[in-house]
Amino acid sequence: MGKVTGFLEIDRQVHKYQPASDRIRHFREFTLPMSDKEVEKQAARCMDCGIPFCHGPTGCPIHNQIPDWNDLVYNGDWDNAIRNLHSTNNFPEFTGRICPAPCEEACTLNLEDIPVAIKTVEQAIADKAYETGHIRPYPPERKTGKRVAVIGSGPAGMAAAQQLGRAGHDVHVYERESRPGGLMRYGIPDFKIEKHYIDRRIEQMQGEGVTFHCGVNVGVDMKVADLLGEFDAVLYCGGSETPRPAGIPGADLSGVYDAMPYLVQQNRRVGGEPIQSVAWPSHPIIAGGQHVVVVGGGDTASDCIGTAFRQGAVRVTQLDIRPQPPEKEDKLAVWPYWATKMRTSSSQAEGAEREFQVATLEFIGEEGQLTGVRCCEVDDKRKPVAGTEFVIRADLAFIAIGFAGPADDSLMKELDGEIKVVTDSRRSNNVEANDRDYRTSVDKLYAAGDVRRGQSLVVWAIREGRQAARSIDETLMGSTVLPR
Fold first, then answer.
1. Could you tell me which residues come within 8 angstroms of residue 222 by beta carbon, excluding any fewer than 6 positions away?
2. Per DSSP, what are the bridge partners of residue 293?
3. From residue 422, how far is each of 193, 218, 452 by CA, in Å?
C-alpha cells in the first residue's frame, strides 16, 4: 500500500494552521490546504503492515479502507479514491475535519509517533471530489414505493436518509431547527467545519429524492404516532442533548451557562440566523472583554474556548478535574487503542490557561451576577485537598462536562407515555435498540446515533445511520444490497 519504502523516505506532514493571532479574528476554517503532490507523498507513507489496525474496530468505526485509498491517491487516481471512500463513509468531508482520528492512533507507524496523515488525506480526497464534480446527486434507478421517515438531521439521520434514498425509498427527514445538520451545524463551530459543506450534501440528497422538512418539531407540531401510521418505517436520530448535571452551587447565577446554548447561539449568528433556537433559548451571550472560565476538558469545552477568543475574551481558563496526562503514552500498553496523553487542541493553543486536577466547588457572585469561580485541587480519587482552595475571576462560565441522554421533550414524553418505547436505564434513558437491526420495542420504529448509544463521535453516528438504513431496507424489501 502506498510506496513500499515511503515511510522510510518521507517525513510525516499534516495541514498547517493560520497563526493564532490571525485565526482568532474570524470564524472561518483556518487550515492551510496542501497541494495534490504533497498529499500524494503523505499517502505514499502507508506501509504494507499486514494487519491494518487503522480500519479495524480499534481504528475506524465505519471501517474506511484506508490503505486502499492511500494507495489510489499515491498513484494519482483521485476518482477511484473517492469512490472507495464513499463506499464506507457518506460524508468524508465531515470526518476529515472533525473526527479525532482514532485511525491514526491505530496506525502501525504510531508506534514510532509518526502515523500516516490519514485525516489530512481523507479531507483532501473529499475536497478534490467537490472540485472535480464527483459529489453530485446519484438518484436511484427505480423507486420501491416504500416510505420512510427520519426524525433528526444530524450525521446519523443524514447518513441513513442518503442510504435509504439511494435504495429507492421515499425518504422524509424532519428537523425541528430551521436548517438541517443537527449539532454538526449548530453545535460545532464554523472554524472547525464551515456549514456550506453540509449545505452541499443536503443539495445532493435532495437531488437524490430525499425531502427535508425543517422547522417541524416532532412531538409538538406532529406526533410520532402519526408518522408511524403514515410511513412504513420511522427512524429516530434525535441525538443526546440533555446537559450532564454539574451539581455546582451558584449555577443559577447570571453569567453561568451550559456550553451548548452558547455554541448554538454563535453558530446561528455566523449563519445569519436569529440567535433564538427552538431547543436552546437564551438571551445574547458574548464573551467580548470578559474573563471566561470553562468547566470541562473535552471537545465541547475546547469549542467554547475557541469561540470565546474569537468574540474577544480577555482571558480564558479551562478547568479539568482529571490529572494532567503524560506527554507520551506507553505504546506497548495501549496501542492500537486511543491513548490518554497530553493533547492540545487548536483552540487551547490560542491562549487558554489550563488547570488540571482541579474541582469546581462553587460559582460565586454579587447581586446575582457571577464574579468568580471557587476551586481546589483534588487527589487521585477526585477528593478535595485541604488548604488548596483558590478563586478565579470570572464574568462568564460555561459548563461543558458532557451530555446525559436525549432531550426531555415532548417527543420523548410521547415515546415514554402513549407509545411506551423501552429505554435503557443503564445509559441515561437512551432509546433501547441493539446495534444489529436498530429496532426499538415499538413496531416500525428504529433508533440510531447518540439517542441510542449516548454521546459519541460523528463517525459513530454515521456508522449507526448506515447500519440502521440497511436494517430498514432489509425489513421492507426482504433483502438488501446496502452495506453494514
1. 174, 216
2. 317, 397
3. 35, 19, 11
